[in-house]
Amino acid sequence: MRKITQLAVKKFLNHENFRMGNTDVWSGYECSLTRITRLSLHGNDIATKVYDTIKIDNQGWFSNTTKERLNGLLHSLGRIGIQQKNYKWYLDGKEWNGEEVELLKNNEWEYTHP
């Protein structure tokens, strides 16, 4: 795992702001009393944390960098992560189209927009 990914994931999980290269972590309040933390790559939010709920989304970018950043987060949470086979992505062993999902316990996940 690249150093930038390690730092970004650590800051994301600790609700701390961070910026390096093409990666940002922003933590704060948006029109509410609820703290929101966002992990962004090239300005696209690829992970969001509110309380203990984490959602991920590749924002339509099936790039190695997007996969690497998300895998850094997923592996730090003890999850299998994203693998790629025949140009398809698999999240925790199940085919994933990259759209926003909420990470659940026991390596399960569900789409947030059915």
Key phrases:
alpha+beta; 114 residues; 2 helices; 7-stranded antiparallel β-sheet; 3-stranded antiparallel β-sheet; single chain; 10 strands
Can you tell me about this structure?
- This protein has 114 residues and is an alpha+beta fold.
- The protein has one domain.
- The protein is built from 2 helices and 10 strands.
- The chain has helices at residues 3-13, 64-76; strands at 18-20, 23-29, 35-41, 44-50, 53-56, 82-85, 88-91, 94-96, 101-103, 109-111.
- A hairpin with a 5-residue loop joins strand 9 (101-103) and strand 10 (109-111).
- Helix 1 packs across helix 2.
What is this structure's SSE topology?
Blueprint: H1 3-13, E1 18-20, E2 23-29, E3 35-41, E4 44-50, E5 53-56, H2 64-76, E6 82-85, E7 88-91, E8 94-96, E9 101-103, E10 109-111
Antiparallel strand pairs: 1-2, 2-3, 3-4, 4-5, 5-9, 6-7, 7-8, 9-10
How are strands sequenced across the largest beta sheet? 1-2-3-4-5-9-10
Radius of gyration: 13 Å
Q: What is the subunit organization of this protein?
A: single chain
Q: Secondary-structure element sequence?
A: HEEEEEHEEEEE
Helix content: 10-25%
Question: What fraction of the residues are assigned to beta strands by DSSP?
Answer: 35-45%
SSE class: alpha+beta
The mean pLDDT is 94
**Uncertain segments:** none
Shape assignment: globular
The total number of structural domains is 1
**What is the count of helical runs?**
2
Number of extended strands: 10
Largest sheet: 7 strands, antiparallel
The end-to-end span amounts to 32 Å
